[in-house]
Amino acid sequence: MSIEIPFTKMHGLGNCYVYIDLVSQLIDIPSYSDLAVKAADAHTGIGSDGLILIVPSNRADIMMRIFNKDGSEGKNCGNGLRCVAKYAYEHGLVNRKSFKIETLSGVVDAEVHLKDGQVDLVTIDMGKPVLDRKRIPMKGGDQEKVIDEPISFNDQTFNITAVSMGNPHGLFFVEKIDEAPIHELGPFLADHHPAFPEGLNVGFIEKIANDAIEYRVWERGSGMTQACGTGACAAVAASVLTGRLSMDETNTVHLAGGDLYIKWLSDSQHVLMTGGATTICKGIFYL
């Protein structure tokens, strides 16, 4: 007998996940990892970048758990957080415009912005970027921070800046985003490089203005995606660290799926991310 699982499919700038509400309903799911793999398949499932569960929390108003399309569990997802915030507010899981969401990397503050009674934009306080090499984590090197550090690939040398936003990101600056070696360097660093014991989200940045960058990303466990919220935050942090962007400015990050607005605050050192969240469809998945 199959298990009937009500779901909502949502996306943040094209970064789409299947969302399952386990706060207002109880469903006996044998394996979240297996469900993520099956649901993400575009031919025999629903089709997505993975699975996000909305579950009760003892530390916050709700909790988000993320499973990539390969079944691995992630610690944080910026686009996912915005969608969870939208779902939670519109479905009455929370009754305030500002509330807290727990992730495996910690608790974050969320604020929804309404238009015609519906959630239009969401601001997430993503917390402080982690810059310490050991906490990212990244092996090797003499410096505590990884800023424009050389790394080799196929007899070529690239300069990497590493930042964690609850999950590890390696950022590379390029002259032209369309010529970035995403499909070559991305999968190698994401899953195979010995310097990154937990893998890596690999991002490429082109500065196009004093307050704007183009950004593309290869995500560990999912491959190339339309957008990555934590990656956009990490990209702005890396750009500030290397003198390309300024703190306390609202910087626009242009991703393949749309724009995010990122500000790194000098007083609290927290990164604020604002962007949209969209409901695609709802249905029943038969497991």
TrEMBL record:
<feature type="active site">
    <location>
        <position position="77"/>
    </location>
</feature>
<comment type="function">
    <text>Catalyzes the stereoinversion of LL-2,6-diaminopimelate (L,L-DAP) to meso-diaminopimelate (meso-DAP), a precursor of L-lysine and an essential component of the bacterial peptidoglycan.</text>
</comment>
<dbReference type="InterPro" id="IPR018510">
    <property type="entry name" value="DAP_epimerase_AS"/>
</dbReference>
<feature type="binding site">
    <location>
        <begin position="219"/>
        <end position="220"/>
    </location>
    <ligand>
        <name>substrate</name>
    </ligand>
</feature>
<feature type="site" description="Could be important to modulate the pK values of the two catalytic cysteine residues">
    <location>
        <position position="169"/>
    </location>
</feature>
<feature type="binding site">
    <location>
        <position position="15"/>
    </location>
    <ligand>
        <name>substrate</name>
    </ligand>
</feature>
<feature type="site" description="Could be important to modulate the pK values of the two catalytic cysteine residues">
    <location>
        <position position="219"/>
    </location>
</feature>
<feature type="binding site">
    <location>
        <position position="201"/>
    </location>
    <ligand>
        <name>substrate</name>
    </ligand>
</feature>
<feature type="binding site">
    <location>
        <position position="68"/>
    </location>
    <ligand>
        <name>substrate</name>
    </ligand>
</feature>
<comment type="pathway">
    <text>Amino-acid biosynthesis; L-lysine biosynthesis via DAP pathway; DL-2,6-diaminopimelate from LL-2,6-diaminopimelate: step 1/1.</text>
</comment>
<comment type="subunit">
    <text>Homodimer.</text>
</comment>
<keyword id="KW-0413">Isomerase</keyword>
<protein>
    <recommendedName>
        <fullName>Diaminopimelate epimerase</fullName>
        <ecNumber>5.1.1.7</ecNumber>
    </recommendedName>
</protein>
<feature type="binding site">
    <location>
        <begin position="78"/>
        <end position="79"/>
    </location>
    <ligand>
        <name>substrate</name>
    </ligand>
</feature>
<comment type="similarity">
    <text>Belongs to the diaminopimelate epimerase family.</text>
</comment>
<dbReference type="GO" id="GO:0008837">
    <property type="term" value="F:diaminopimelate epimerase activity"/>
</dbReference>
<feature type="binding site">
    <location>
        <begin position="229"/>
        <end position="230"/>
    </location>
    <ligand>
        <name>substrate</name>
    </ligand>
</feature>
<feature type="binding site">
    <location>
        <position position="167"/>
    </location>
    <ligand>
        <name>substrate</name>
    </ligand>
</feature>
<keyword id="KW-0963">Cytoplasm</keyword>
<feature type="active site" description="Proton acceptor">
    <location>
        <position position="228"/>
    </location>
</feature>
<keyword id="KW-0028">Amino-acid biosynthesis</keyword>
<dbReference type="Pfam" id="PF01678">
    <property type="entry name" value="DAP_epimerase"/>
</dbReference>
<keyword id="KW-0457">Lysine biosynthesis</keyword>
<feature type="active site" description="Proton donor">
    <location>
        <position position="77"/>
    </location>
</feature>
<dbReference type="InterPro" id="IPR001653">
    <property type="entry name" value="DAP_epimerase_DapF"/>
</dbReference>
